[in-house]
Amino acid sequence: MKQRKSNRLPLHDYSSPGQYFITIVTKDRKHYFGLPHNCSSQELHLRVIVEGLWKTLFDEGSHSIHQVLMPNHFHCIIDITDDTHKEIDHSNIKDRRRMLVPKLIGKFKMLTSKAINDYFENIGKGRPFQWQRNYYDRVIRNENELESIYYYIEGNPDNWEVDVLNARNYDPATLKRFLESFRRGNS
Q1: Among 26, 27, 44, 65, which is disulfide-ready with 72 (CB 3.0 to 4.6 Å)?
Q2: Pairing relationship of beta strands 18-25 and 73-80 according to DSSP bridges
Q3: 63 and 167 in contact (C-beta within 8 Å)?
C-alpha cells in the first residue's frame, strides 16, 4: 500500500503554544458553501453547521483568531496558549495524532461531515459530503506573518474568482506552488 506523505513538520509539536494557519478543502474541491455574502438557502444552512461546530472545538488553552468558510474550503488561524501538554515521541504516529492541532482538525472534519451528511440524507440526497483526507498548515512565525495571513483570510471572499482553490481555476502547477508556499514557511 502506498504511504501518504505528511504535510506536517516532522519534529514540530503541534500542541506547543503558537499560531497555526490551517486550510481544509472539500474532496475534489467541490463547492458546497457559497460565499459569505452570496449563497443559496442550502449553502447558508451548511455554512451555519460548519461555523457553529467550529466554535465548539476550543477550550481555555486554545482559540480561533480568525476564520473564513469559502465555497470549497475553510481557512483558519488557531492560537494555542496552553503549554501544559506532555512531550510526544515524534517517531510514533499515534503520539503525533494526539497533538492538539491534528486532534482539533480531525474532530472538526468528523463532526461537520456527519452533520452535513445527516442534512443531505434528510432531504433525500444521500451522504455525498467529504473533506480531503489531509489539510494544509503553516506554523506562524511572527506578528508580521500573523497579520499578513489574517488579511489574506479577511480578503479571501473578495478574491474568490481568482482563488487557486476555486475549482474553475484548477491548474496543477499553480496549486502546487500555492501549497508549497505553506511548506516553505515551515522549513
Answers
A1: 26
A2: antiparallel
A3: no
